[in-house]
Amino acid sequence: MESISLKLPQELLETSDRCARALGIPRAEYIRRAVERMNRETEARTRAGRIAAASRKVRKESMRVNAEFARIEREPDA
Prior knowledge:
Blueprint: H1 10-23, H2 27-74
Helix pairs in contact: 1-2
């Protein structure tokens, strides 16, 4: 496992210590979990953005296909 040096504002450090104690875990574990959570959230937002961008690219074609299906349902013999 790699190590890093990290400077935090005093208030953030004190809050992190207090929360870590409340959970019964070391401060380093608390900070590790916080980083992991932020990584998951960032990756999820990035993935959602990519999905939205792909959806925008195919929106017009999807609307055309939906309209065609609707026409077929209205006029089955057409």
